[in-house]
UniProtKB/TrEMBL annotation:
Reactions that this protein is recorded to catalyse: Preferential cleavage: (Ac)2-L-Lys-D-Ala-|-D-Ala. Also transpeptidation of peptidyl-alanyl moieties that are N-acyl substituents of D-alanine; [GlcNAc-(1->4)-Mur2Ac(oyl-L-Ala-gamma-D-Glu-L-Lys-D-Ala-D-Ala)](n)-di-trans,octa-cis-undecaprenyl diphosphate + beta-D-GlcNAc-(1->4)-Mur2Ac(oyl-L-Ala-gamma-D-Glu-L-Lys-D-Ala-D-Ala)-di-trans,octa-cis-undecaprenyl diphosphate = [GlcNAc-(1->4)-Mur2Ac(oyl-L-Ala-gamma-D-Glu-L-Lys-D-Ala-D-Ala)](n+1)-di-trans,octa-cis-undecaprenyl diphosphate + di-trans,octa-cis-undecaprenyl diphosphate + H(+)
Entry keyword set: Carboxypeptidase, Cell membrane, Cell shape, Cell wall biogenesis/degradation, Glycosyltransferase, Hydrolase, Membrane, Multifunctional enzyme, Peptidoglycan synthesis, Protease, Transferase, Transmembrane, Transmembrane helix
Parts of the chain that traverse the membrane: 27-48
Organism: Hymenobacter frigidus
Protein's name in the database: Penicillin-binding protein 1A
One Pfam family recorded for the sequence: Transpeptidase
Chief subcellular location: membrane
UniProt gene name: mrcA
């Protein structure tokens, strides 16, 4: 029988071990890991933000930015005598020292914006926690310190260029920006004292009305300086910082008053002022002396455009910004000489305008006339069609002629220029057509004075009043020069073998030449239509401005050479090489280039590039660029001295055209003056180029259009329109002893003069004041036309 195995025991099975619930332990473990990561992230996060990790956080201020913060600052213009005459800016800001600010201003700022300012290191944790709890309660309360606000304003932390990839997520962007402010604030506190931070803050923040910094704000709202602010004024300026637009007292006076009184209450709570005084100040209304400076501040002057063009070109080439870098630009202009030039021009032009108005009133016609003296029909309508305002109206009322005509004749009050009031303006009811006709009646003028030895421009008056006439008649305007161009003929002669004592007979002549392959002839006239028959010296002929002698000399030296020499000494405008070039009909030129060219004679033959700027400094007063004289030899020293001697003939030769200057107080110390008058056809342009031993001055007078002019030599020649401006100007220069300009002789020649220059003029005896008559540039070509000849193409308008 097989063995049988015993059956398994029937005892109960062993109990299973209990299942452990591990999720609390895992949760705790992950919590610690998460907490650790948060700690690590908290410690690393500032580093990630400051280094712009993977371009996620945007740019933060660098070490160089922190140690040399760049604040937008207005560039300033200074004259050669140290007078601030203007600014260029986008944010109008002029920093001042903390010692130049009212102590009450600083205390008001701390009491209102950051009561624990001297206790924290850039971040006020108490204020931050208070701000968090206030937000949870639905209240709005800021926790930023003054240092944080400075960081935000100084480095534009929240601007587009400071954003990274995470900066476009709404809540995240705010957290990142706030982190940057905190980090930057801490760094600022490490590098600057509390006083320095206050100074930077008050000089940086915006106060509204385009006022940045406390100096400009005090001037804008109260016409005072930061150290002279009254308690209520200081409180208002601190109050406006919270919201420069909403609390602007000029536009929101009620809100500004309420905010100012909040600041006064804070000052009282901080013990800055007694409570009784605080109560009295709160009852005081805001009294403004409001004036906003434009983006280009300073008097409206014609040379500002030339300066802007020059400095902007320099900035483009060097990487500077004229509107934000706080440059100090020092000019060659002397403010005193500029004032004398403006006064002289205004005094003469006011009197001349009165004569002009009476002249045409007596003729019972308007001053725009043709060659025969007849009023030009439809002149104003024609001129109006050339204006930008007409083109704008014509575009608006296209195919609506009646509405266009109505707009051109619609009358409204206009502020216009006038000589009748001291401030040179008045309000009249006019239409656009009336206004244009009104302004066309005015004679215009341009004047420039330069130191011929350095090229420094000392005075520049481009017109009557820049507010009403923006066109600059010094550099922008170009007109025929009349007889003031004649010296270039004599220059060409002297540099090619002639001497001042060589003689040419004053007689009627015919100049034969070829124009476009056709034989032509020209018979120049003297202005008096008379010929003395005198065998004149070149000096006497130039002094008397005799057309016949100049025309003959031009033929002898070659009109092409005259154009070449004019360009050599400073004329830059295109010139036509024509027989009448010496009488000014070779092309239009500016006062600017005529002064430059004549200065070459005084400067021993060196042409000096005219300069308006001497140096440019940075905001700390360090010289960035010095602009030294730029000169090159144009003619020999002997020729230059002889030309100066020739120009003295206008005063020294019998009948010289400059002798009206005897009427002015210019003749102490045996003074010497050289000069040349000029008048163009129909008396359209009057010129005077005057030189002394120190200065070269050019003056032009004429109508806005060539058809607007006097019709006789007694009123319209250059010796009667432009020369008196030079005379008045030099009187004022000599009377102003601070300037240091004195009458006296021209410099002696620096080289041996080999040519004969002292000679007797065969003419009437010299008189103290001869009634000299200047020549007219476009002389008797009409006679040629009347005799069957055509006007040469090169001389046609």
């Amino acid at each position: 029988m097989a063995d049988l195995k015993p059956l398994a025991s029937a005892s109960p099975a062993a109990p299973k071990p209990p299942v452990r619930r591990r999720w609390p332990l895992r949760l705790a473990s992950w919590s610690w890991v998460g907490f650790g990561l948060l700690v690590i992230l908290f410690l690393v996060y500032p580093f990630l933000v400051s280094t712009n990790f993977m371009f996620l956080f945007g740019k933060s201020p660098s070490l160089a930015d922190l140690e040399n913060p760049k604040v937008e600052q207005a560039s300033e213009l200074y004259t050669s005598d140290g007078v601030l005459i203007g600014k260029y800016f986008r944010e109008n800001r002029s920093p001042v020292a903390l010692s130049q600010m009212s102590p009450l201003l600083i205390k008001a700022l701390i009491a209102t914006e950051d009561v624990r300012y001297y206790e924290h290191a850039g971040i006020d944790l108490t204020a931050v926690l208070g701000g968090v709890f206030s937000s949870l309660r639905g209240e709005k309360r800021g926790g930023s310190t003054i240092t944080q606000q400075l960081a935000k304003n100084l480095y534009k932390i929240r601007r587009q260029q400071s954003r990274g990839a995470l900066g476009y997520i709404p809540v995240v962007s705010t957290i990142i920006a706030k982190t940057k402010e905190w980090l930057t604030a801490v760094e600022l506190e490490r590098r600057y004292t509390k006083q320095e931070i206050l100074r930077m803050y008050l000089n940086t923040v915006e106060y509204g009305s385009n006022a940045f910094g406390i100096k400009v704000a005090a001037k804008t709202f109260f016409s005072t300086s930061p150290d002279s602010l009254r308690p209520e004024e200081a409180a208002m300026l601190v109050g406006v910082l919270n919201n420069p637009t909403a609390y602007n007292p000029r536009f929101h006076p009620v809100a500004a008053l309420r905010r100012r009184n909040v600041v006064l209450d804070r000052m009282g709570q901080a013990g800055v002022l007694p409570k009784a005084e605080i109560a009295a100040l709160k009852a005081t209304p805001i009294v403004l002396r409001y004036h906003v400076e434009p983006h280009i501040d300073g008097p409206d002057t014609y040379f500002r455009g030339a300066i802007s063009q020059f400095v902007n070109a320099w900035c483009d080439s060097t990487g500077h910004d004229m509107y934000r870098d706080g440059l100090k630009i020092y000019l060659t202009i002397d403010s005193r000489m500029q004032a004398h030039a403006e006064e002289a021009l205004h005094e003469r032009m006011k009197a001349l305008q009165r004569q002009f108005d009476n002249f045409w009133r007596n003729k019972d016609k308007n001053p725009w006339v043709d060659e025969e003296g007849n009023e030009i029909p439809d002149f104003i309508a024609t001129q109006m069609r050339r204006t930008e305002s007409y083109k704008s109206l014509a575009n608006r009322y296209r195919n609506q002629p009646q509405r266009l005509d109505s707009a051109l004749n619609a009358k409204r009050p206009m502020k216009v220029f006038t000589w009748k009031h001291d401030d040179n303006d008045t309000t009249l009811v006019m239409s656009p057509l009336d206004s244009l006709a009104y302004y066309k009646h005015f004679l215009q003028s341009g004047m420039m004075c330069m130191d011929p030895f350095t090229g420094q421009i000392k005075a520049w008056v481009g017109g009557l009043d820049y507010r009403f006439f923006q066109y600059d008649h010094v550099k922008q305007g170009r007109r025929q020069a009349g007889s003031t161009f004649k010296p270039f003929v004599y220059l060409t002669a002297l540099d090619n073998g002639y001497s001042p004592c060589d003689r040419i007979r004053d007689q009627r002549v015919t100049i034969n030449y070829v124009e476009n392959g056709q034989p032509m002839e020209w018979k120049p006239d003297n202005v008096t239509r008379e010929y003395t028959g005198i065998n004149m010296t070149l000096r006497h002929a130039m002094a008397r401005s005799v057309n016949s002698v100049t025309a003959q000399l031009t033929e002898k030296v070659g009109w092409e050479n005259v154009a070449k020499y004019a360009h050599k000494v400073g004329i830059t405008s295109p010139l036509l090489a024509v027989p009448s070039i010496g009488l000014g009909s070779g092309g239009d030129v500016s006062v600017y280039e005529m002064v430059d060219a004549y200065s070459t004679f005084l400067n021993t033959g060196f042409r000096s590039e005219p300069r308006l700027v001497t140096r440019i400094e940075d905001r700390n007063g360090n010289v960035i660029k010095q602009f030294d004289p730029v000169q090159k030899r144009a003619i020999s020293a002997e020729t230059a001295w002889l030309m100066t001697y020739m120009l003295r003939g206008g005063m020294e030769e019998p009948g010289g055209t400059s002798q009206a200057l005897w009427d002015y107080e210019l003749w102490k110390n045996d003074n010497q003056i050289g000069g040349k008058t000029g008048t163009t056809s129909n008396y359209s342009d009057g010129w005077y180029m005057g030189m002394t031993k120190d200065l070269m001055t050019g003056v032009w007078v004429g109508g806005e259009d060539r058809s607007i002019h006097f019709t006789g030599s007694q009123q319209g020649e250059g010796g009667r329109t432009a020369l008196p401006i030079f005379g008045k100007f030099m009187e004022k220069i000599y009377q102003d002893k601070e300037l240091g300009y004195t009458p006296g002789h021209f410099p002696k020649p620096s080289v041996k003069i080999t040519k004969k220059y002292t000679c007797v003029s065969e003419s009437e005896p010299r008189r103290r004041r001869a009634e000299a008559v200047d020549t007219i540039a476009a002389d008797n070509l009409l006679e040629q036309m009347n005799n069957g000849g055509g006007l040469p193409d090169s001389l046609k308008p």
